[in-house]
Amino acid sequence: MGVQIIEQFICSKYPDQQTCEDGLFISSDFIAVIDGVTSKGELTWPDPSEGGSGFLPPMTSGRYAREILTQALKTMEPGIDAASAMEYLNQALATAAGGRRGFPGGHPGGLASRDFLRDHPEERLQAVIILYSCQKKEVWAFGDCQCLIGDTLHSHSKEIDGLMAEIRCLYNQAELILGRSEDELARHDPGRACILPLLRRQFLLANRDRPYGYDVLDGFAIQPHHVSVYPVPPQTQVVLSSDGYPVLKGTLAESEKALDELLQKDPQCLRENRGTKGLVKGNRSFDDRTYVRFVVL
What we know:
The chain is of the alpha+beta class and 297 residues long. The chain is 32% helix and 20% strand. The strands form 2 sheets. It has a 5-stranded antiparallel sheet, with no helix packed on it. The chain has a 5-stranded antiparallel sheet with strand order 2-3-4-5-8, with helices on one face. Strand 6 (146-149) and strand 7 form a beta hairpin. The termini are close together.
């Protein structure tokens, strides 16, 4: 394997860990953090008419995308290059979505399912990923997961997320001026409701080379050359994580402490940690989070 795993952690934002859309994969060939995109559509996966595809419970699109990519990583060629790996993983999502038997409006599976998902991008299986290739000795990032290689942070934040966060925060700051409390915002987030149509609209910009475009695995055409590749020298510590950690540190304890401090100071993510969603009452955090730290030998 050529690495030593030091610590790993995965936690759902919800009290039920089974709802977590993040995933962690560790094998002798790859170490990967998968972040299933929070569902903005209405479909659950797999198709209920299929009897739960091996009796799997109904899942959000993000959770099912995590499951599909976890399985794909088990069969991915160890010597594959970064761009080809993204194509391989993306094709796994395409195959899974194409195998669905039915869609709303009478769309059958197969080619018609592609038509439906092309017209309704919010219903696609979507995820971003960051992984370490043990054979290539490289970290590959596609989307907004993050990493620490030695002391160097690579965050891969999206311009469009920053814009959406500002709009939500503006709306909710106005709500506070009008007399709403942050406790009320934790029960019902009007700023989130305000940007939700835009969040659905932004899927049209997925994998587009234009302003506000961004990269995501979604089973449709991607730009695999956009994958970020970072060589990792021997005896280097590496941390891979999803964006559920707003401040990524060199240890899990430090990262958890930084997150906890932000949750205490700014639970609705309106000031120090502006975001597209805040801490919903009863949840553990504003997002799922995954962390793995290892040393390349």
